[in-house]
Design goal:
Keywords: DNA-binding, Transcription, Transcription regulation. The protein is mostly helical and about 190 residues long. The chain contains eleven helices and no strands. Helix 4 runs antiparallel to helix 5 and helix 4 packs across helix 6. The protein is globular.
């Protein structure tokens, strides 16, 4: 049922999946689904966890055996490819209305952070720079993908070439990351 809900999310948008819509896709009454799912929130959380696991699996496979720029580009391309191929599922991974307790105990979200940090360690980053760089990458990838998916790039420049240049720029930034360690050391005292 979760897979069917994920497919529905890709077809109609994550925000448009409902228990009723899913029941219609199975040609059954809403009530018959409630033996499998508690409510709409439960259904959406299941889709979000499935999508997060699929995305993490794709990223892990893409970065395996790679480091540095090669890993970052593979990570970014796997992220983008998944988001564009599965827009509803991708939106589910970004859903802010998910239960924070669910996210805190979810191994897939922890795995995603670990994959991101492992890829960034090749750039010799440590905390708090790992978190800052991870947030920058997520923001850059998400923003680019969102604009691309919504037709936000109207210039004649090839969108793929711009993506590649953006990744080149991100790589240069990561190689020359302005470390926050001096600020961190000052907080700790002498």
């Amino acid at each position: 049922m979760t897979e069917a809900a994920a497919e529905l999310a890709d077809a109609v948008g994550f925000e448009n999946i409902t228990v009723s819509a899913l029941a219609r896709s199975f040609k059954v009454k809403d009530a018959s689904l409630y033996s499998h799912v508690k409510n709409l929130r439960d259904l959406r959380e299941r889709v979000a966890l499935l999508a997060a696991e699929e995305l993490a699996d794709r990223i892990a496979a893409a970065v395996a055996g790679r480091s540095g720029k090669e890993a970052m580009v593979a990570f970014a391309n796997a992220y983008r490819d998944y988001a564009l191929a599965h827009p509803g599922r991708y939106a589910a991974t970004q859903a802010v209305q998910l239960d924070p307790a669910l996210l805190a105990r979810s191994t897939v979200y922890i795995r995603t952070i670990e994959l991101t940090h492992a890829m960034l360690r090749a750039y010799r980053l440590v905390e708090p720079d790992l978190t800052d760089a991870g947030r920058l990458l997520r923001s850059a990838f998400h923003g680019y993908i969102n604009l691309e998916a919504n037709g936000g790039f109207s210039h004649s420049r090839d969108v793929q070439r711009s993506w590649e240049q953006a990744l080149n720029g991100l790589h240069l930034l990561l190689e020359n990351w302005p470390s926050d360690s001096s600020h961190h050391a000052a907080e700790e005292g002498p």
